[in-house]
Amino acid sequence: MAAGAVFPVRMSFLSCLKKTAVAAFFICAVCVVADAAPLVLRYDKPAKKWLDALPIGNGSLGAMVFGGVAEETIQFNVDSLWTGGENPSGAYETMGEYQNFGELRISLDLPKDAAGKTLKTENYSRTLDISTGLAETKFSVGGVNFKREVFVDGSQEQNTASLGLIFVRLTADKDFSGRVFLKGAHKEKTTQILSIPKIPSLQFSGALNNGLKYIAGVTAIAEKYNDRISQKDDHVRFENLNTLTFVLLAGTDYTPDHTRNWKHAISEELLSSAFLPNFVRLGLVKNYDSIKAPSLAATAAYMGRVSYNFGPTDAARRALPTDARLREYKKGAADPELEVLLIQYGRYLLQACSRQGTLPANLQGLWNPSNAPAWHSDYHSNINVQMNYWLAEPTNLAECHVALIDLIRSQVPIWRRATAAAREFRTAAGAAQGWAVRTSHNIRGGMGWKWDKTANAWYCQHLWEHYAFGGDKNYLRTAAYPLLKETAEFWLARLKTLPDGQLVVPDAWSPEHGPDEDGVSYSQEILWDLFDNTAAAAVALGRPDVERKRYTAARDKLLVPKIGKWGQLQEWTVDRDNPRDQHRHTSHLFAVFPGHQIGHTRTPSLAKAAAISLAARGTSGDSRRSWTWPWRCALWARLGEPEKAHQMLRGLFQYNTLNNLFTDHPPFQIDGNFGITAGVTEMLLQSHDGAVHVLPALPAAWKTGSVTGLRARGGFTLSFSWRNNRLEHIKVKSALGGNLRLRLSTSSCGLGPLRPAGEQHPVSVKTEAEANANAPDGTVEAVPVWVLVSGSTPNPNPFYLLPPDAKVGTGFVEYDLATTAGGEYKFDATGK
User: Fold this and answer.
1) Most exposed of 200, 242, 728, 824 (fewest Cβ within 10 Å)?
2) H or E segment at 447?
3) How confident is the model at residue 201 (pLDDT cuts 50, 70, 90)?
4) What is the per-residue pLDDT for 10?
């Protein structure tokens, strides 16, 4: 479903029958990264607590797998199990919160000695393969080898209803017996599914205080000997089997449409016990591999698009369990493959909790064991939900971004009502026209806590970025531009004019820090971004030029952040910044990242001031948060400081990474996992300021490596490699055609030009001597500021049409390349 659709509808269970083509793609997807280090989390003991367990998911249904021996626990969640409603009061305590759904527990009767004591467990292994989403537990007891596989059905097109399936497969080389229990998290009574009396099964259902209905059920199916499975009062008993599959179903009647009171049109059918047997009657698990292959292929299709290689890890260290490797890394050991694992883990977690047609990742993504989670496990609009999606476009997960975009669009009608009723947004003309967002919100339009006034404009950045990377004009016209324009007009009606004509946001906030006052840098920078993007969207859609001029004029009148008395970029209009302040938020550096107003190539003095501010925040105390390291990693990357950016990655590992590689605020928050993937990607590829910059911040630690499949704005996908910290090869695929402006740092490519590999569009370059041929006497550029080639074919791409006399600073070389839609271009670096 395109993001331009009015609302997403939810997942289908029947489409897993479309397995043949998907399974074939699974094979190809895995081959793409076959030469990379295995993307596997591995442990030599079961999880003792929830934060040691391993996450699986298909966007709307997720679980944490503990990997127990005698008793396995699988705690599960559905993204739409929320309390709360539209909450017109705005009170945080009534906004609602994300809920635990329940758990599946499997108890095995393991071999015992003559005294009745369970024999020793040997050869234990617990793994999660994030390239496929398969969680496995293997162990031996009394000479019997056991294996357990757990995965979420990911083959659905996710377009029918909020239901999903988890498969658990038990096998052993001798017969085993045991029991299975299903327990809800809201004191529900578990009963048999009476409509399928010949197949033992369990179910529970209920309704939350907001009317949301939900249901879960599990059936146990053996490929043979179903008569060895029996129904008991509160559990299912199985005896003398060597293969058994459990199918867990869970879902709610939520749909993201306020006109339907947030309820799915077929909710009664979905939530009736008569619906559950369909999963059994289809006979899907009688050919287990026909379910497993397309489900793993769905994850592999996402994961196989991008690979990272930062060099090899020592073989002895690679052989250690993941938690042992993490301990060694925290002591200072080099482990580039562990770094890659964490970066790819961010991509894995996003596709596991945010697929097209599902709700977006909340503060904990999808995984939550509590009915009273920290900060309600809500959507935090002042950094956290945005950080969740910084990686989506550049790391080739654009479909995952759609979940956030669709949620925003579904909530806006309720947010308009709340905004119109808020005194904070009234003008002389009366009630507000438009929408704003409080710091927290749920999935039914309900908001809580403080108004983050310019968060509406920050949300609009995500609407724009989805277009900037993908170039879908229909999406821009129907989905993004209407909200960009509405938000721009909302702020044009509210900006305050200073005596000198500059515009400021009145009574603004710098989350979560300092006083409310006019013109704080955070809000000024976000509105600069909004007006700049809205003007660009107007141009892309061919809107009247007066529209573009309206928004660029407002952008250019905004008060620009000032440079303070100790050289810092001021957080407020008053020069009150404390150089010893180590506050976790760096809100006033939005213009560096994720914005694009400040950069060391175009605004060097402001960039220098931003670097001073960033350094002053430090890396101790309040600055040690799961999400602060990633933001600062991206900021240092944008500021051209590779070693400092890499230090932020090491800091996240050192202080805020748990044994299962979840990031810990504390408590657990998933934005650190997502944010660090985005931050590291900014070290490797940037495209925010009019050029595609390859290796802008390559640290010395990654001496030799490669990357495949990263995306740049303008519809370009790049793969490249380097050796001895010098660029070797670049491959570019152009989806849209048009001009590509390619920027290389002379520190990573030397002074030699690129050379087309194979038959390519002709590219000529200026040498250093040619660049200085007409320079006045005594003036010599040490490095050419521009190395430009005019394309001989039309270049309709709007993203890289900067004036040819623009200045980007020394230390770079740039190339213009005319591309065609679908074209592929390969280059070798000739620099030494």
Assistant:
1) 824
2) strand 447-451
3) confident
4) 34
Supply the DSSP symbol for 769: H
The rounded distance, in Å, linking the Cα atoms of 38 and 247 is: 28
pLDDT tens digit string along 208-255?
Answer: 999 999 989 898 888 776 788 888 878 999 999 999 999 898 989 999
Which residues lie across from 733 on neighbouring strands?
Answer: 717, 824
Residue in 467, 392, 402, 298 with CA at minimum distance from that of residue 710: 392
pTM of model > 0.85: yes
| CA 818 – CA 741 distance, rounded (Å) | 9
**Which position has the token pair 């060895």?**
228
The HSE-up count of residue 666 (CA atoms within 13 Å, CB side) is 5
Quick one: pLDDT at residue 715? 95
- Residue 423's region, left for phi above 0, alpha for psi from -120 to 50, else beta, is alpha
Calculate the average pLDDT of the chain: 86
Using the structure block, give the residue that is written with the tokens 């006979």.
Answer: 283
Query: DSSP readout, 196-238?
Result: -TTS-EEEEEEE-TTS-EEEEEEEEE-SS-GGGEEE-SSSEEE
Asked if 362 contacts 377 with a C-beta cutoff of 8 angstroms, the reply is yes
Is the pLDDT assigned to residue 789 strictly greater than 70? no
Q: What is the CA radius of gyration of the chain?
A: 28
Distances (CA, A) of 75 to 44, 166, 516, 667: 21, 11, 42, 18
Distance from the Cα of residue 438 to its chain's centroid = 22
Count how many residues are written for the chain: 832
- 489 prior amide bond cis, ω within 30: no
**Separation between Cα atoms, residue 694 and residue 690, nearest integer Å:** 13
Instruction: Report yes or no: 462 and 404 within 8 Å, Cβ to Cβ.
Output: yes
DSSP string, 525-574: HHHHHHHHHHHHHHHHTT--HHHHHHHHHHHHHBPPPPB-TTSPBPSSSS
Q: Which residues, in sequence order, are CB contacts of 261 under 8 Å at separation 6+?
A: 211
Please determine, for residue 345, whether its predicted confidence score (pLDDT) is greater than 90. yes
